[in-house]
């Protein structure tokens, strides 16, 4: 409890008032300041306000910023200075409220001074500075809220308004800059008509308006305004943008006239010759002989066809789906609609059973992406062989359509009938030989067979599985020769898929790879010959032998067809490479393992050994061998000496 002073103790009414104020001071400052603000509002003088605030002067923190603001706005300067002085001692920051209130007073005062100018308040109408650029289909404008492009201007406008129609573009907006009010107004009387429905504008960027005007006809304009001599002081070509766009214009040359320029001299525009004609002379305008006085145009049906592109993305047979892309006629600007029909040939529309023409869809020439969508699973109508596109406008349809042969994407219906392969390569881990692809039962829609390594009878190896494509031959099996190839890691099968330009039948034919090997892949293995013996040479002549040769067969002979006996230049222990010096004979497994080399058997030069290899027909001779040295009996030579 605060100490109650003797003075207050003697005056009970004052005590009550004091207590009320004191309680208010301690109460929630927000709730309290609302009451206080109201009290200040109705205060008639600075004295009254001073009395109201007196209880709070020692606790300025409890006063809201709004109270401070109010004091300043009521211009009780003595009281305000007093509070600010005290705020420093109490370390309370009231600067925000003070500054904001003073600013608003100052503005009011300035505005009062400005109104001394009799013209003040009337927005001055000015033409804003702007830049323009074009590409084939569009005009790009940037309008800056200032009269000179490089001068600062208003950051934003209120009440922006844009009206477009025919060849007119009008913009207005209100803005403030350097203590002046402006009405920015720009009216452009353009070279040619625009398509207002698809033209856009945005005031999103600071200080400027961005506009994209869509040309009614996609052509390069020679200038922005129809009048050659018309000058707008603050008009500039948007060089930076135009340089970028020029590359997309691809050397397109500018036209010279338009319905607007011709209309100005009451003539009509002839598109084909890009000239103005008297209405009676439209008969001389190629393809457009009907004078249209309202449009200032020698008019007529379109006289050029568009072209079509389509790739069926529906893989079911007899069904189509995907986007039909239309490439517009190059010089025909006056086409409004491109209509796509089913065709019974490359010129004539298919007639449906109800006698109607078979329309697929239409694309408006004004859309940037000319496309007609064929929903997936669209059935091809009976008799339809083509897609046709007709150019149309208000005057009719050009009789000569663009056309495209229908190509129904469908995957092959069947896998190959089978796959046959016999390895003819004796090396382990490698194959060689002819793969035969047996013809598919249903060869419809198959153009080739695709050979792959498989990690199972149905799945391709995960990397580099492709071996080769083999062209289908109607009614025949086809084959591919694999010359010595390492079997990729993990590959266990050869697979063949039926294939065409649209894709592959999902299931392959397969054959398990049997990696055939020749005998005796490792030295001393059970399927290597065990040994070879030779008797003493009984032919006394040098370079001639007469001996008995005996082979000790391999322990396991199932993979051996025969043993091959060779002259050798070295023993098998010294390596087999280049050791052979001539074949002597074979010993078939199951027959005698002994043989006589008769008298006068010539020994090839350099032979020091007899070598024996194991052999498997079709795969070749083993890489390892057994050997025995030969000793040439040269008795006769010595005798001669
Ligand atoms: C011209 O500009 C429009 C609007 O930005 C754009 O859609 C169109 O693709 C442009 N034309 C070319 C040829 O790039
Ligand atoms: C644009 O302004 C001009 C000049 O004020 C006026 O003649 C024309 O009718 C206006 N056009 C549109 C579309 O607002
Ligand atoms: C656009 O048209 C409306 C209605 O006619 C008009 O109030 C407005 O001022 C026009 N704006 C411009 C820029 O011409
Ligand atoms: C109209 O055709 C006539 C006869 O061919 C020709 O003399 C005249 O110059 C043409 N006028 C225009 C404006 O093309």
TrEMBL record:
Q: In its UniProt record, which GO terms are filed under biological process?
A: chaperone-mediated protein complex assembly; protein folding
All copies of the CS domain together span 125-225
- Extract the InterPro entries matched here: CS_dom, HSP20-like_chaperone, p23-like
Which of UniProt's keywords are assigned here?
Signal
Q: What is this protein called?
A: CS domain-containing protein
Q: Which family does it belong to?
A: Belongs to the p23/wos2 family.
Molecular function terms from GO:
Hsp90 protein binding; protein-folding chaperone binding
> What GO cellular component entries does it have?
cytosol; nucleus
Instruction: Kindly indicate whether the keyword Ion transport belongs to this entry.
Output: no
Signal sequence coordinates: 1-27
The organism's superkingdom is given as Eukaryota
């Amino acid at each position: 409890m605060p100490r109650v002073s003797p003075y207050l103790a003697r005056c009970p009414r004052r005590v009550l008032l004091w207590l009320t104020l004191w309680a208010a001071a301690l109460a929630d400052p927000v709730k309290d300041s609302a009451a206080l603000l109201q009290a200040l509002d109705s205060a008639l003088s600075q004295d009254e306000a001073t009395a109201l605030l007196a209880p709070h002067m020692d606790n300025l923190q409890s006063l809201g910023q709004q109270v401070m603001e109010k004091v300043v706005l009521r211009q009780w300067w003595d009281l305000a200075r007093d509070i600010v002085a005290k705020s420093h001692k109490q370390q309370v920051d009231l600067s925000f409220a003070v500054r904001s209130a003073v600013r608003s007073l100052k503005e009011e005062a300035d505005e009062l001074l400005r109104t001394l100018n009799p013209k003040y308040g009337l927005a001055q109408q000015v033409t804003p500075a702007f830049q323009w650029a074009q590409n084939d289909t569009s005009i790009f404008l940037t309008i800056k809220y200032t009269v000179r492009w490089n001068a600062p201007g208003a950051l934003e406008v209120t009440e922006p308004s844009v009206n477009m129609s025919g060849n007119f573009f009008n913009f207005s907006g209100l803005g403030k800059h350097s203590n002046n009010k402006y009405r920015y107004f720009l009216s452009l009387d353009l070279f040619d008509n625009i398509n207002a429905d698809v033209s856009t504008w945005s005031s999103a960027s600071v200080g400027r308006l961005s506009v994209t005007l869509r040309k009614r006809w996609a052509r390069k304009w020679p200038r922005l305004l129809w009048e050659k001599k018309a000058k707008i002081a603050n008009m500039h070509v948007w060089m930076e943008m135009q340089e970028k766009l020029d590359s997309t214009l691809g050397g397109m040359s500018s036209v010279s006239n338009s319905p607007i320029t011709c209309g100005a001299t009451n003539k009509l525009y002839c598109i084909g010759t890009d000239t103005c004609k008297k209405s009676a002379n439209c008969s001389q305008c190629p393809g457009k002989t009907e004078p249209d006085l309202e449009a200032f145009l020698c008019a007529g049906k379109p006289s050029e066809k568009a072209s079509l592109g389509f790739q069926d993305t529906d893989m079911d047979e007899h069904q189509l789906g995907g986007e039909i892309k239309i490439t517009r006629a190059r010089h025909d600007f006056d086409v409004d609609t491109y209509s796509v029909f089913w065709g019974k040939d490359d010129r004539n529309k298919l007639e449906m059973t109800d006698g109607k023409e078979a329309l697929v869809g239409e694309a408006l020439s004004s859309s940037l992406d000319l496309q007609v969508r064929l929903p997936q699973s669209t059935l091809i109508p009976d008799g339809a062989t083509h897609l046709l596109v007709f150019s149309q406008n208000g005057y009719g349809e050009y009789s000569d359509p663009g056309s495209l042969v229908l190509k129904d994407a469908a995957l092959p219906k069947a896998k190959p009938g089978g796959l046959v392969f016999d390895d003819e390569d004796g090396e382990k881990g490698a194959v060689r030989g002819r793969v035969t692809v047996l013809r598919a039962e249903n060869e419809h829609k198959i153009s080739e067979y695709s050979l792959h390594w498989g990690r199972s009878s149905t799945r391709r190896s995960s990397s580099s599985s492709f071996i080769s494509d083999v062209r289908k031959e109607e009614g025949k099996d086809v084959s591919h020769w694999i010359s010595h190839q390492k079997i990729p890691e993990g590959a266990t099968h050869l697979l063949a898929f039926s294939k065409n330009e649209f894709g592959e039948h999902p299931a392959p034919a397969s054959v398990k790879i049997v990696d055939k090997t020749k005998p005796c892949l490792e030295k001393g293995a059970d399927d290597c010959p065990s040994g070879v013996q030779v008797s003493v040479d009984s032919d006394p002549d040098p370079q001639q032998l007469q001996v008995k040769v005996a082979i000790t067969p391999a322990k396991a002979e199932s993979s051996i067809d025969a043993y091959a006996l060779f002259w050798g230049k070295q023993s098998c222990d010294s390596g087999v490479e280049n050791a052979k010096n001539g074949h002597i004979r074979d010993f078939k497994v199951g027959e005698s393992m002994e043989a006589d080399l008769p008298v006068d058997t010539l020994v090839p030069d350099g032979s020091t050994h007899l070598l024996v290899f194991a052999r498997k027909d079709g795969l070749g001779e083993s890489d390892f061998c057994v050997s025995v040295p030969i000793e040439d009996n040269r008795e006769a030579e010595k005798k001669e000496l």
